[in-house]
Amino acid sequence: MTFDWSVVWQHRDALAAGTVTTILLTVATMAIAVPCGIVVAILRLYAWGPIAALATAYVELFRNLPLILVVYWAFYVLPIMTGLGLSPLVTGLAALALNVTAYNAETFRAGINSIRRGQLDAAMALGMSRIQALRRVVLPQALRRILPVLASTWVSLFKDTSLVSVIAVTELAYVAMQIRAQTFRVLEMLTALAAIYWLLGYPQAKLVDWMQRRFVVTE
Amino acid sequence: MNSAMAPRAKSTRPRIIRYQGVIKRYGTFQALSGVDLDVHAGEVVCLIGPSGSGKSTLLRCTNGLESIDGGSIEFEGAHLSREEHTLRAMRQRMGMVFQSFELFPHLTALENVAEGPRTVLGKSRAEAAERASAMLAKVGLADKAPNHPAALSGGQQQRVAIARALAMEPDVMLFDEPTSALDPETIGEVLNVMKALADEGMTMVVVTHEMTFARRVGDWVAVFDVGRIVEQGPPQQIFEAPTTERTRDFLSHLGWNG
Predict the structure, then answer these.
(1) Which of A102, A192, B108, B164 is deepest in the core (most CB within 10 A)?
(2) A56-88 burial, b if ≥16 CB within 10 A, otherwise e?
């Protein structure tokens, strides 16, 4: 069997564009799923009963469905629900955000619960509202505490974005598979794909390690 | 009315807090079973008694961290509100110091003290920092402004916590066993700050096991047992001529010899 690695170089522009889409997809998903995760966590913890139950139902549904199923589901159901012709990118982003928001909500809930009651008491005793106490006192501490978990979610997400290739989002995996289909250079393209994911993922993991050391709070 | 509830000498100073028949339950456990107590302006009222007798519970009910199940609490002439906005306005006028300090670990000493003025009173960053510096200086910790709580001793943390409460310019300070979590060698520095506050005329309600403090600094002492005040009066009465068996028992268990 002979290898022809030049196929990777020949398609460098397409691969680069796919890589950019993958990165953007990861950043955009997290940009949605972090604030939404906080809101869902707070709804579960403090909202009026039925609203809290709804938030819980959302989390338990999306946390326990395979992501690829959610991606397909979004592809077929979202256009019917919204009446809009959504692009594959927006559909993929929605599916990823729905899934990661559910995970983040659980992470934030655990983080908020890990801050001892006395901290909330101290903030409330100063005259803060519950929202102020959460925003100024509880969340900053919770966020530092759960940073390692959020970071590993991030690294997983970076790789999981490849799942939206099934609905033809032109991210890295999809682009590589397309090239493979056109050139029949299967091993070359899979190896290149692995190399790109790893080279991008490894520094992210290291950055995460650094952030954990940097933002650690000792009591 | 029995001798335990002997009416106190009438104070001419305005009343700041009035507890009347306060009842607090946790499930079937009755933490407070009808507590009557008045706190007047400029007074230091010390709440003493065995652990679990309801002292801390009463203090936590005072600023609404716990709700009451019966009776009433008046603060500056108004009933303690259950409505959040009014309750928050009341809390701003009551500083609270906790046994476990509860400083915000992610903020420096200065930021801890500035947090109330900044977030609750809406002061500018500069104004809040200025007031925080002044309060840290007042408790003798001006040089610790940039330190995080983890870098401070227990006594220093508690003094920062006192400064944090004072930065709201409260009318009354509530102390919940402020020295119980401290190493013996740092208790003195916290008590000195509290004594200085009392000398300035701050109204204080202090839950404490420091009998010497209650005796020397207190204007009025209330002895708690199983959710009731079994005796209250000036410290001379409580420590030298207690009128109830329960007070004598409690003091003798502490090795207090008058």
Answers:
(1) B164
(2) eebbeebeeeebeebbbebbeebeeeeeeeeeb
